[in-house]
Write a structure and sequence with these properties.
Transmembrane segments: 34-53, 85-105, 111-133, 138-158, 194-212, 219-235, 241-259, 271-290, 356-379, 400-419, 431-447
Structural class: mainly alpha
Helix content: over 70%
Radius of gyration: 22 Å
Largest sheet: none
Domain O-antigen ligase-related: 224-375
Low-confidence stretches: 444-448
Pfam family, one: Wzy_C
Number of domains: 1
Mean pLDDT: 86
Subcellular location: Membrane
Strand content: under 5%
Membrane topology: Multi-pass membrane protein
Shape: globular
Length: 448
């Protein structure tokens, strides 16, 4: 099955200036010793980013992203395979164009340009991932690298829980009984950021548990899932908790479809409800018996009774006013723009660095145009994932499990994004585009 976008796009590539530049150096590609190992080099660059991201400054991450973007540009100019663009690529391209328009109409153009450059680097990272993940061995190399690094990060986070770490008032409502709750943050410096960073590791760990063949590998997968899930719990991040539940439910639905033909009619109908019921009973029991968990969960429903909830509500109110004044193209990209415009709308004593929801931050930055195209990316990615899962199941290719894991992780990150904007931090944003890259990569080549 050809998953690339055909005829109209092919004609555009042959006639447009940008399209003609693709493959400009194709003759050099065949004679270059270096480019014969282009996918391996690209994989190494991606692995370097994954290894350093939790422990490095955003500046260093940015430098690596520049290198990745430059290498993708080189490969594109030397392109020999023209059928790599999918509907997901097109939606992302138009979203990027909307970001350029937003920057052009931004009241703070220079600050927005800085945000646009950062955003462009993330998209180039996606483009390289989608190219590299066409080959199974590089997908497994990169995901395994991330899983091993996640063990280091979550292991240190769990250690913080037992040796103690200074609670910070900015993360815990000092007026509540949970004021002394230890919220771990490992090397990332923020418990919400840590929770989001570990979510894909749980999904890929479950994928490894199914796909890895030897007993030591399966034991490692269990350790990865349990350690990362435990650390997510210790973050005390309610958004990450909800995201983990959404992730597990999505993964369960995927497996139910994947193994449906091996189930009896009874289990095909009742397996998901039974598992969900058992899991719900476990959660309810834990809430009843574990006081810190109970207090933290109940705080979700306290509306303005919790300082974190109250803070977000006041920020969201100001954000809606900003959206009213900049409805079409938004205020421009990046936290620098937000930090300068938000004070004009905020309530006293409710300063904020973001809107605390990616589904508010995106329309604030890029307006109705931007959020519409972003939703197009989500829908296109979901449709592509479902299609690929169906294809892999039909062809009995276990790679479909990685697609299920990627989709589950995306659902988890999007769920956390409803209540937080750690999604915009490079440690998570790179993982988001990596996950989309897994789904957008060419179906047939992935089997090679």
């Amino acid at each position: 099955m050809n998953t690339s976008v055909s005829n109209p796009l092919s004609q555009w590539r042959k006639t447009s200036l940008i399209g003609k530049s693709v493959g400009l150096l194709s003759n050099w590609y065949h004679t270059s010793y270096l480019l014969q190992y282009s996918d391996a080099i690209a994989s190494i660059l991606i692995c370097i980013l994954i290894i350093l991201a939790p422990f490095s400054s955003t500046t260093l991450i940015g430098i690596i992203l520049v290198a990745i973007g430059g290498f993708w540009l080189l490969l594109t100019l030397a392109e020999t395979n023209p059928n790599q663009i999918t509907a997901i690529h097109l939606w992302i391209f138009f979203y990027w164009l909307a970001s350029i328009i937003s920057t052009a109409f931004s009241p703070l153009k220079s600050a927005s340009l800085s945000g646009l450059i950062k955003f462009t680097l993330y998209l180039l990272f996606f483009a390289l991932c989608a190219r590299v993940f066409q080959k199974k061995k590089f997908l497994e190399l990169i995901t395994t690298t991330y899983l091993l690094i996640s063990l280091i990060v979550s292991g240190y986070g769990i250690r913080q829980k037992f040796i103690g770490v200074t609670p910070l008032a900015t993360w815990t409502d000092t007026s509540l009984q949970t004021a002394d709750l230890t919220r771990v943050y490992s090397y990332l410096g923020n418990p919400n950021l840590l929770g989001g960073y570990l979510l894909p590791a749980v999904a890929f760990g479950l994928g490894g548990l199914i796909l890895w063949k030897t007993l030591p590998q399966k034991a490692l997968a269990i350790v990865i899932v349990v350690t990362n899930s435990t650390c997510i719990y210790f973050t005390g991040s309610r958004g990450a908790w909800l995201a983990l539940v959404a992730l597990l439910f999505t993964f369960l639905l995927g497996l139910n479809y994947w193994w449906a033909e091996y189930l009896s009619p009874f289990w095909r109908k009742w397996l998901v409800p039974i598992i969900v019921g058992i899991f719900s009973l476990f959660i309810i029991t834990a809430i009843i018996l574990v006081e810190p968990l109970r207090l933290r969960i109940l705080s979700i429903f306290s509306w303005r009774g919790d300082s974190s909830n109250n803070f977000r509500i006041n920020v969201w109110y100001a954000v809606f006013q900003m959206m009213r004044d900049y409805p079409i193209t938004g205020i421009g990209l990046g936290n620098q723009v937000f930090n300068q415009i938000y004070p004009l709308y905020m309530k006293t004593n409710f300063t904020a660095l973001s809107s605390y929801s990616i589904f508010l931050e995106i329309p604030i930055e890029t307006g109705i145009i931007g959020i519409s195209l972003f939703m197009g990316i989500l829908v296109s990615t979901f449709k592509k994932a479902i299609t690929k899962i169906q294809i892999f199941k039909t062809e009995n290719q276990a790679m479909g499990i990685w697609i299920i894991a990627s989709l589950a992780a995306l659902v988890g990150l999007a769920t956390q994004g409803v209540f937080d904007t750690v999604w915009f931090r490079p440690q998570i944003n790179t993982l988001w585009w990596l996950l989309i890259g897994v789904i957008a990569s060419n179906v047939r080549v992935m089997d090679n």
